[in-house]
């Protein structure tokens, strides 16, 4: 195994256990990986701006404050990543995940996408930019195991 600790950024939907399955799978295999992610608590993420900078009557400015602070975290973690994994879930449109994917590609970061087959067509350009497209979190673990061995 490689001695380098890989930094893997986990982007995308927050309504399933895919992150935990990847993290637990890499631990079970003894892989040396450091995972980072956006804040996955909706309220904490949405309200960070007003909680720190003060209340806003207009939702546009409330969201603008939060997105500015959140983007500091997200952009820094993607820049530091050796690999970016982007999960697109079936229930919601993940605009932030699509943005993260584009940002990763623009930075030349290797990217793996993770989504169900029903999203193949809408995500064809994103998948084309990815090094691999997975259907299950365990496939991401196997990719990490392969590249770190």
Structure write-up:
The model has no long low-confidence stretch (mean pLDDT 95). A five-stranded parallel beta sheet has the order 2-1-3-4-5, with helices on both faces. It has one domain: Response regulator (Rossmann fold). α1 runs parallel beside α6 and α2 crosses α3. The chain is of the alpha/beta class and 149 residues long. The chain is globular and about 50 Å long. It contains six helices and five strands; from the N terminus they run βαβααβαβαβα. β3, α4 and β4 form a beta-alpha-beta unit. Helices cover 50% and strands 16% of the residues. This is YtoQ family protein. InterPro entries: YtoQ_family_protein (IPR019884).
N→C terminal distance: 4 Å
What count of domains describes the coordinates? 1
Side by side, the strands of the main sheet go 2-1-3-4-5
What is the H-and-E element order? EHEHHEHEHEH
Strand proportion, as a percent range, falls in 15-25%
Mean model confidence by pLDDT: 95
The CATH superfamily title: Response regulator
Shape: globular
The CATH topology label is Rossmann fold
> What is the number of helical segments per DSSP (H or I, 4+ residues)?
6
Poorly predicted parts: none
Overall SS class: alpha/beta
The total beta strand count reads 5
Q: Report the CATH C-level class.
A: Alpha Beta
User: Over all CA atoms, what is the radius of gyration?
Assistant: 16 Å
By CATH, the architecture is named 3-Layer(aba) Sandwich
> Helical percent range?
40-55%
Largest sheet: 5 strands, parallel
InterPro entries: YtoQ_family_protein (IPR019884)
Organism: Oceanisphaera avium
Protein name: YtoQ family protein
């Amino acid at each position: 195994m490689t001695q380098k600790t890989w930094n893997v950024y986990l982007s995308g939907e927050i309504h399933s256990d895919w992150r935990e399955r990847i993290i637990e799978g890499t631990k079970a295999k003894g892989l040396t990986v450091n995972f980072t992610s956006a804040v996955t608590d909706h309220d904490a993420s949405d309200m960070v701006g007003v909680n720190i900078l003060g209340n806003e009557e207009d939702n546009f400015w409330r969201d603008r404050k939060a997105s500015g602070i959140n983007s500091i975290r997200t952009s820094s973690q993607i820049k530091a990543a050796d690999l970016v994994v982007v999960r697109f879930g079936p229930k919601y449109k993940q605009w932030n995940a699509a943005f993260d994917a584009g940002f990763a590609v623009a930075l030349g970061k290797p990217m793996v996408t993770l989504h169900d087959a029903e999203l193949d067509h809408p995500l064809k350009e994103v998948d084309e930019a990815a090094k691999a497209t997975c259907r299950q979190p365990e496939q991401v673990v196997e990719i990490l195991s392969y590249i770190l061995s």
